[in-house]
Specification:
The complex is a heterodimer of chains A (about 350) and B (about 375).
Chain A lengths: L1 E4 H15 L3 E5 L29 H5 L4 E3 L4 H13 L3 E8 L7 H8 L2 H4 L9 E6 L14 H5 L5 E3 L4 H13 L4 E6 L6 E4 L12 E4 L4 E5 L2 H15 L4 E5 L2 E3 L3 H11 L2 E5 L7 H12 L9 E4 L9 H7 L3 H13 L2
Parallel strand pairs in A: 2-3, 2-4, 4-5, 5-7, 6-7, 10-11, 10-13, 13-14
Antiparallel strand pairs in A: 1-8, 6-12, 9-11
Chain B lengths: L2 E7 L6 E2 L4 E7 L3 E5 L4 E6 L6 E3 L5 E4 L5 H18 L9 E5 L2 E8 L4 E7 L13 H4 L3 E6 L17 H15 L4 E6 L1 H12 L4 E7 L10 H9 L3 H8 L11 H12 L3 H14 L4 H5 L6 E6 L17 E5 L6 H4 L1 H14 L14
Parallel strand pairs in B: 10-11, 10-12, 12-13, 13-14, 14-15
Antiparallel strand pairs in B: 1-3, 1-6, 2-5, 3-4, 5-7, 8-9, 9-11
Helix pairs in contact in B: 3-4, 5-6, 6-7
Chain lengths: ~350, ~375
């Protein structure tokens, strides 16, 4: 057990699964960046592993047959992953920014997500798409979107949003071992987040929410980086005597409805925090779940804390204004706590 | 586990406290728990504040007789603060180490030093060395103590190749002791660990100075299947919470972190198969208490919670000469639920040897 960053936890998960199962291969742009066979004898100097660094050192250990560099063609990467998965490999495709998954919707929505269904269960597609989501790093509107809701909408896909280093490793291992296509969304603002992460491999089941704090006053349901933001808010609210129960669903598909409903029924007061846009989103989805299945337990209107319905601004001050933060979350918790 | 949070004081500054009286509530990664007064006297200082966290071993308050002058207490507090600063950045919290024993990694936590024979602490089913968090520091004041992670548990290797019985587990612990150069030890063991300790003592009688067995398996009573099978099956927070409630007399003491830690252990590759294998070892263990103890010449002291629902003592009789302490209001985890009393009971065995005159039923509860 030691203190590890989110980035290192992801790297460790990939390495350990590649050691365990020779069918696990990586496919993506620049995932071996900086590495050349001429430098093969040089000691690992931290070069390589793409701009995300999550694949650092893997080409050296597993070679170019398992760490496969591609041209900049998103649809080729995803089509290759789906085909390889159908024929027995366990590919982990990497697309640096979820924003570009739009280029390969057919491969993901129509092929990967549908093949098991179309072939009556005779085909399976054990592939993982690793990608980054989220704003806050001044990467502008085309590299900052929080697109988990779109993928959650599609049956046949599993959608995973690790909110910390421990979850990142255990959920990525589960994703690789899963027999269905998994969209694995890493938040750019979490790569430096560090906590205790076991050295050994471990897997966290999908559809099992994490309870970060227990409390009787207000239920907060948050996704991805908003979990860390809400955790900061709940600590300051504890000083005011407000006990927040903070739930991180970990996966939006499948969704741990039981944990959400159980907590909503206990507190009767709910805040949902999501960095995605507000329309047709995880925030509205969870709100509808609670309103339809725990309506009589509610003691105040459900509060949604989301980004606005605009593209992510590039100007740093506007980008910060766009994002929910600990203050806006705390204000929403106070509103529902003091409603009547 | 390196720190805990003070939840509340139960006693006002200036109030008189009895030894064993619950004086404050702390919450750690393991459990929310009352801390008992180690000595009788007046609670002269409350140094820790509710809601704050403190490292293990921090000075939380001062109990002294009424006639101790205030200046002396102030000097004591200042001295402790000084000592803390000198230790400085290199925190004095001992950290677990790894040792390769017969090709597998064994994790252990060594604490203390001194002239006494060393103590080996052996945890129970699905436990780990952190289970001894509340008793190991006190036991380490006069001797070395080694809390070990059994194979398949905690930070030790999870694979159990070549380990096919409790005797094999005991052999591995003997190899562990050999490697540390330890000839003779006191064994302090809990639950499943009790059955391991008994197996070790039966084969290596001369190497065991004494056995203190807390709520032990291996003395004619098997752990209930609802607990063993329930724990193996539980993968969700909800299921795990209801299983872990069986461990404690006061179910409310099962904390979120206690559940999370158990889930984290079970998620490790190999942990669940290891637990299944250990469950099999336990099923095969069918000696009566008399059979279990007959080849053991070291003094044996059994400590049992009166409300143990995992290895319920019932009306089980122990052979003559075996000391028995039954703790009222305690479940399956005496070393967590009633830590300071358990330390005292263990010390009586380690220091003086057991009461050879016969068994003691129903030691007074705090």
């Amino acid at each position: 057990m030691s203190h590890k960053s989110y980035q290192r936890a992801l790297n460790e998960a990939l390495r350990q699964e590649m050691q365990r199962d020779p069918n696990v291969v990586l496919i993506g742009i620049d995932i071996a960046a900086g590495y050349s066979s001429a430098a093969a004898d040089a000691p690992d100097d931290g070069v390589g592993g793409g701009i995300l660094g999550a694949t650092a050192g893997l080409i050296q250990e597993f070679g170019a047959a398992r760490v496969i560099e591609t041209p900049i063609s998103e649809s080729a990467i995803m089509g290759m992953c789906a085909g390889a998965a159908c024929t027995g490999l366990r590919p982990v495709g990497e697309l640096m920014f979820a924003d570009f998954l739009g280029v390969c919707f057919d491969q993901i929505f129509n092929q990967a997500a549908k093949l098991r269904y179309m072939f009556g269960g005779k085909a399976q597609v054990p592939m993982v798409i690793r990608t980054t989501v989220g704003a806050g790093v001044n990467a502008a509107a085309q590299h900052s979107q929080m697109l988990h809701s779109i993928f959650t909408h599609i049956p046949g896909l599993k959608v995973v949003l690790p909110s910390g280093a421990y979850d990142a490793k255990g959920l990525l291992i589960s994703a690789i071992r899963d027999d269905d296509p998994v969209i694995f969304m890493e938040h750019k603002g979490l790569y430096e987040q560090a906590e205790e992460v076991p050295d050994e491999p471990y897997s966290i089941p999908f559809g099992e929410a994490n309870l970060l704090t227990e409390g009787d006053d207000v239920t907060v349901i948050a996704f991805s980086k908003m979990v860390q933001v809400s955790l900061a808010a709940s600590r300051s609210l504890a000083q005011e005597g407000l006990a927040v129960e903070l739930i991180d669903p970990r996966t939006t598909s499948p969704l741990d409805e039981d944990t959400i409903l159980e907590s909503a029924k206990k507190t009767g007061r709910v805040v949902i925090v999501d960095e995605g846009h507000p329309r047709c989103s995880m925030a509205t989805d969870v709100a509808a779940l609670i309103a339809s299945k725990a309506f009589h337990a509610l003691r105040a209107p459900i509060e949604l804390v989301t980004a606005p319905h605009t593209p992510v601004p590039f100007a740093p001050t506007l980008e910060q204004a766009y994002l929910p933060n600990a203050n806006t979350v705390a204000a929403a918790v106070r509103r529902v706590a003091h409603d009547r | 586990m390196e720190e805990g949070t003070l939840v509340a004081w139960h006693v006002a500054e200036g109030a008189e406290v009895a030894a064993g009286e619950q004086i404050l509530e702390i919450e750690t990664a393991k459990i929310a728990n009352a801390v008992e007064a180690t000595h009788a006297g007046i609670l002269r200082r409350r140094l820790a504040m509710a809601g704050q966290s403190y490292p293990c071993g921090a000075l939380l308050g001062v109990i002294a007789d009424a006639n101790v002058p205030d200046e002396q207490i102030a000097a004591f507090v200042a001295e402790r603060a000084q000592a803390k600063r000198q230790v400085g950045a290199q925190s004095n919290t001992p950290v677990p180490q790894m040792l390769a024993v017969r090709g597998r990694q064994i994790r252990f936590l060594h604490q203390g030093a001194g002239g006494g024979l060393p103590v080996l602490l052996i945890h129970g089913f699905a436990g780990d060395l952190n289970n001894w968090l509340f008793v190991q520091p006190s036991l380490s004041e006069k001797r070395s103590t080694y809390a070990v992670d059994l194979p398949g548990h905690g930070g030790s290797s999870k694979d159990l190749n070549d380990i096919n019985s409790l005797n094999d587990v005991a052999e591995l612990l003997v190899a562990f002791l050999d490697q540390l150069g330890i000839e003779k030890v006191h064994l302090v063991a809990h639950s499943l660990g009790g059955a391991v300790a008994l197996a070790l003592a039966r084969k290596y009688d001369k190497r065991v100075a004494s056995l203190v067995l807390l709520s032990p398996a291996g003395l004619g009573i098997s752990p209930v299947p609802e607990f063993i099978e329930g724990l193996i099956a539980a993968r969700s927070r909800r299921d795990m919470t209801s299983v872990l409630k069986m461990l404690l007399a006061h179910e409310g003491q099962v904390s979120r972190d206690m559940v999370n830690d158990m889930l984290k252990f079970k998620r490790l590759d190999g942990a669940e198969p290891a637990l299944r294998k250990f469950a099999g070892f336990l099923r095969e263990e069918n000696r009566s208490a008399a059979q279990a103890l007959q080849d053991i010449s070291a003094p044996v002291h059994v400590i049992w919670g009166a409300h143990d629902r995992v290895v319920p003592r019932g009306t089980n009789e122990l052979p003559n000469g075996i000391r028995l302490s039954v703790l009222e209001g305690v479940g399956h985890m005496p070393h967590i639920e009633r830590n300071s009393q358990v330390v005292e009971l263990i010390e009586t065995t380690l220091v003086q040897g057991p009461d050879a005159a016969g068994r003691q039923e129903g030691a007074p509860a705090a």
